[in-house]
Design brief:
The protein is of the alpha+beta class. It has helices at about 10-25, 30-45, 70-80, 120-125, 130-135, 140-145, 150-155, 175-180, 215, 220-230, 245-250, and strands spanning about 5, 45, 55-65, 90-100, 115-120, 160-165, 190-195, 200-210. α1 packs parallel to α10.
């Protein structure tokens, strides 16, 4: 069953919601669940002409720097430059990716998006897409980067939403305009996500080659709850897949 992303009416939303819940359920790790979500949306969302609607679908989640493996920590440290990372610093981590380019189908192949450090609200403001995504979820940047137990208790069950850029070309929120937006014909971007009970944020981002109106984008708020429900059952030990060092090294190639 496919869903027309250019309309994504109530019927599409309800049917897609049910299928997405089934797709995400039963995975042994959050990483596998996220990959299933991305694959489902990439395969099942189409335009009015029946062609695939997204060039790329990605899922991100914030994780504490100290909980990441050494490889991801190194990526985050390189991005920080001279600033020393804190163990509690949030890092926006690429959990899953599916797309039309070969290098877009493994998080290990991503060059610049695997682990994005979020050391302070001021630094995040310099990454407009990330900052706007957090704000669209109804969160202050400080809450997202340093969630206190009280804030998590108050907001975790309530904060979910949609980030929508109806016209991607020329938008200040979407970087890499020429090499990505123009080259791959990205017309609209839709992101949806929320805050988990751990205080971490998750987001699924659709880079669409079809125009997605606001009325269609807003319905993804319901899908945010479906993904949140699937992700909420994982703990710190079941976030990432276990990979041996030889496999990691083989996958560590530039985009």
């Amino acid at each position: 069953m496919t869903y027309d992303l250019t309309k994504f009416d109530l019927g599409d939303m309800l049917k897609c919601s049910l299928s997405l819940r089934e797709t995400a359920a039963g995975a042994p790790t959050l990483e596998i669940s996220a990959q299933r979500v991305c694959r489902f949306l990439y395969d099942e969302l189409h335009g009015a002409d029946g062609q695939r609607a997204c060039a790329l679908v990605r899922c991100y989640k914030t994780n504490a720097y100290g909980s990441l493996d050494p490889d991801l920590q190194a990526v985050a440290r390189d991005a920080l430059g001279s600033e020393a990372p804190r163990s509690t610093m949030k890092v926006l981590t690429l959990m899953a990716t599916v797309g039309q380019s070969a290098g877009w189908n493994s998080r290990h192949l991503s060059r610049g998006h695997r682990a994005i450090p979020l050391p302070s609200p001021e630094i995040v403001e310099k990454a407009p897409m990330i900052a706007q995504l957090i704000k669209e979820l109804g969160l202050q940047l400080s809450y997202a980067l340093q969630p206190s137990p009280d804030i998590v208790k108050e907001l975790a069950g309530k904060r979910h939403g949609v980030f929508h850029v109806e016209h991607a070309f020329g938008s200040p929120y979407i970087p890499a305009q020429q090499e990505f937006v123009a080259r791959f014909g990205i017309k609209s971007v839709v992101g949806f996500g929320g805050m988990l009970a751990t205080g971490d944020l998750f987001a699924v981002i659709l880079f669409a080659t079809v125009h997605v109106p606001t009325s269609a984008a807003e319905r993804f708020k319901s899908l945010a709850l479906d993904v949140k429900s699937a992700f909420s059952r994982f703990n710190d030990r079941t976030i990432f897949n276990e990979m041996n060092l030889s496999t990691s090294s083989a996958l560590r190639q530039p985009e």
